[in-house]
Design a protein that fits this description.
Layout: E1 13-19, H1 23-34, E2 40-44, H2 81-91, H3 112-128, E3 134-138, E4 142-148, E5 151-156, E6 161-169, E7 174-175, H4 195-199, E8 207-210, H5 214-225, E9 232-236, H6 264-280, H7 286-292, H8 296-302, H9 305-323, H10 328-339, E10 343-355, E11 360-366, E12 373-377, E13 379-382, E14 386-387, H11 396-404, E15 423-425, E16 431-437, H12 443-446, H13 452-467
Parallel strand pairs: 1-2, 1-6, 2-3, 6-16, 8-9, 8-13, 9-10
Antiparallel strand pairs: 4-5, 5-6, 7-14, 10-11, 11-12, 15-16
Length: 476
């Protein structure tokens, strides 16, 4: 990457400043570099490497994508891009363990560390093919942002400031660390990917996992690699486990010409009907479910607030467990642990967590019960998912943006509000000409705003919009 671009007054300038250097930020930078003309880009990211974020910093080979290579291209114009890159990567000696999956490359589930390498390489190639453009990695967290006549000033931890014509909030996801109702401090527990910390636990100690989504699957894989042999208790609000991901044949896109009412009840009834038809024909029920994916953003965006709330309240847990499915390796481990009697899953809500001399003690309320029960274990892993409500995110920048009225909560308090092209709306509902966003912060607008293909499509559309408005706006 290039050196810092200094103006005549010694200030740091960029045409576009990207806040967050995970996958969202990297894909936007890549798409901006693909647009004609030179531009100056800075990515503000505290991690040492751009393009990985939390999701793709995992180094264990067992922590894989939950989609196969054919589904996970970062290039919206080339659905086979990851398949082609992965083929060359494997042929060059990378990821020799891929042979164990014994499937074509398009059907492989790559480790997330390998996927991060893919994203970083594609970003480097985009920079190399954009003469005159610069890309700077400012390795620090943005703690404040102010709008001014030239665009915006970003204040980084440590006091360094950047001036940018346009700023994009590509903050990715924030881990859900919930404050307990008893008034205890919020708990974090063991990192689901910290294998070294898990290896220090008693081998036969009871481990408690809060949350039953895909992060829980990662935690199981980490415990397995750490050599853990004791019981594992999983608690989640609904007690639902991720379904295993299979690779079913194509199915009719029955929502492409849907003429019925677009209500959660009507759509779920139609989906169940097609799943039954598939079963009668000997076709995996995942086939019709996978056709829904392409329509989620449109249907959610068009839905009334009443129907959005109806979906979240009644259907969301089943959608999450059936749509966000576990990769084969994780699904196989989950099934083995249950067969061995080492793993149990219960529906319960967490009330509090306290440390004990032997580990931790959790107060839980099981579904349907009024009384609170106490569960003890050697350790607790917080796999409770993502916090989308920015009002509850204990980070300086979200708090400052909300306090200044530069952003407002999105629909149902999911992320932040923006127009259809990603321009952030302020507290008065006015779309900004300076501040933009993409990816997870726009969950309230599009629902499925975290998947690779969705973020890639948003990155391309936003890059086109920004490239048409930022050209020599700041002094060089």
């Amino acid at each position: 990457m290039s050196g810092i671009q200094l103006g005549a007054d010694g200030g740091r300038y960029a045409d576009v400043a990207i806040v967050g250097g995970g996958l969202s930020g990297a894909l936007l930078a890549m798409q901006l570099l693909h647009r004609p003309g030179p531009r100056r880009i800075v990515i503000c990211e505290p991690r040492a490497q751009v393009g990985r974020g939390e999701a793709y910093s995992a180094v264990a080979l067992s922590h894989t994508l939950n989609g196969n290579a054919a589904r996970m291209s970062i290039d919206p114009d080339a659905p086979d891009d990851l398949t082609h890159w992965l083929t060359a990567y494997i042929d060059g000696g990378g990821w020799p363990e891929s042979a164990l999956q014994q499937v074509p490359v398009a059907q492989l589930f790559p480790p997330r560390e390998v996927f991060g390498t893919y994203a970083r390489q594609r970003l480097a190639e985009a920079l190399a093919s954009s003469p005159g453009s610069t890309l700077e990695h400012a390795q620090a967290e943005v703690v404040d942002l102010c709008i001014n006549e030239q665009g915006a000033t970003l204040v980084l931890e440590g006091g360094v400031q950047w001036q940018a014509a346009r700023v994009v909030l590509a903050t990715g996801v924030f881990t859900a660390v919930r404050t307990q109702r008893t008034g205890n401090a919020a708990f974090s527990g063991l990192d689901p990917w910290d294998i070294q910390a898990m290896a220090a636990l008693p081998k036969d100690g009871r481990v408690i996992i809060v949350g039953a989504g895909l992060t829980m699957i990662d935690a199981l894989l980490s415990l397995e690699q750490a050599g853990h042999q004791g019981p594992i208790q999983v608690f989640s609000r609904h007690g639902l486990l991720p379904q295993p991901r299979r690779q079913p044949p194509d199915w009719e896109d029955f929502l492409a010409h849907w003429e019925g009412p677009a209500t959660p009840r009507a759509l779920s009834t139609e989906l169940r009907r097609h799943c039954r038809l598939a079963a009668e024909q000997g076709v995996d029920w995942q086939a019709p479910l996978d056709t829904v994916r392409a329509h989620v953003g449109r249907l959610w965006h068009q839905a009334s607030e009443f129907h959005q709330r109806q979906f979240v309240r009644h259907l969301r847990p089943w959608w999450e467990s059936h749509h966000h499915r576990s990769p084969p390796q994780g699904a196989a481990l989950l099934q083995r642990l249950r067969t061995e009697g080492r793993l149990s899953i219960e529906a319960a809500s967490l009330q509090s967590v306290v440390s004990t001399t032997q580990g931790v003690q959790l107060a839980l309320r099981r579904r349907g019960e009024a009384a609170t029960c106490l569960i003890e274990g050697a350790a607790v892993i917080n796999s409770s998912g993502i916090e989308y409500d920015w009002r509850r995110v204990a980070k300086p920048l979200p708090q400052r943006l909300l306090a200044q009225g530069l952003v407002k909560p999105g629909p149902l308090a999911l992320g932040i509000d923006a127009d259809d092209g990603g321009a952030v709306r302020d507290a008065a509902g006015q779309a900004s000409s300076v501040l933009f966003s993409l990816g997870p912060p726009l969950r309230g607008l599009w629902w499925e705003s975290t998947a690779v293909t969705d973020v890639a499509a948003q990155a391309k559309a936003l890059a086109i919009r920004l490239a048409s408005t930022v050209s020599n706006l700041l002094p060089r």
